[in-house]
Amino acid sequence: MAKLILSMDGLVLKEIELNKERLTIGRKPHNDIQIDNLAISGEHAVVVTILQDSFLEDLNSTNGTLVNGQAIKKHFLRNNDIVELGKYKLKYMADNTGNSVMPDTEQTAMIRSDIGKAAASGELSLMPAESQTRSHIGTTSRTSALPVAAIQLLNGPNAGKLLKLEKTLTTLGKPGLQVAVIARRPHGYFLTHVEGESYPSLNGKTIDAQAHPLGDQDVIEIAGTKMAFVLQG
After folding, report:
1. Average pLDDT in the 43-67 region?
2. What is the Cα 142 distance to its own chain's centre?
3. ω into residue 128 within 30 of 0, thus cis?
4. How many H helices and E strands in the chain?
5. Neighbours of 137 (CB within 10 A)
6. 153: helix, coil or strand?
């Protein structure tokens, strides 16, 4: 399980396991990680964890959030990233136990597929590559009862093309504009927003920051691209 290591001036203060979907950071007592310091906003940032992937979002804090020295609004966390909040630091440590990453040849084959061509055209992007290639050992047995699902593009020159949701986590959208993930869980498929000021829509309604269950023929719109979630049996 991934974790955050909280430190100040090189002194480790606490280790926090990322064992929940949303973990809040801030000065107020209700936060999961409370940092009682005036440089930290009451609700400063949040870490969203979906299966093996974690995303950091600054909650419009007064003093901002840095990752590896760069100010961020939303950031896909990678192993050994250093998050800075005032004088405090949070080191992200990814636990790769149980992860299987596809070889480069498999990634290349996927990118060269028809759906990969649709992504390359700018109509649909699959980002980041790390997310869409990760799977979890043991997940197959728990999710094998789920029907196979796919995303079907509904607009643009590639309308009608299918993207099978074969991985535990599929990331869709346009980096820097709008990114969301579809997670395959033991009890179904879920859509979650991870990047961008505007949130995707589901059946014409803008979603919030929580994970939303997907049903057959649900219509998703991400970064101007409309797609249908299709259960294939």
Report:
1. 89
2. 21
3. yes
4. 4, 23
5. 10
6. strand
Q: For 143, list phi and psi in degrees, rounded to 5.
A: -110, 0
**pTM (2 decimals)?**
0.51
Is residue 166 helix, strand or coil?
coil
Q: Are 119 and 157 in contact (CB under 8 A)?
A: no
d(CA 223, CA 108): 24
For residue 185, give every residue at least 6 positions away whose Cβ sits within 8 Å of its Cβ, in sequence order, or none.
51, 143
Q: What are phi and psi of 95, to 5 degrees?
A: -95, 110
C-alpha 6/C-alpha 14 separation (Å) is 5
The confidence score (pLDDT) of residue 124 equals 53
In 3-state terms, the chain is what percent helix, strand and coil (to 5)? 10, 45, 45
Query: Which run of H or E residues covers position 178?
Result: strand 178-185
In eight-state DSSP terms, residue 156 is S
Over 80: is that where the pLDDT of 103 sits? no
Question: Other CB atoms closer than 10 Å to residue 11's CB: what's the count?
Answer: 7
**Residue 14 one-letter amino acid:** K
Radius of gyration from C-alpha coordinates of the chain: 18
Report the C-alpha gap between 204 and 200 in whole angstroms: 9
Pairing type for strands 218-222 and 225-231 reads antiparallel
- The rounded distance, in Å, linking the Cα atoms of 171 and 126 is 6
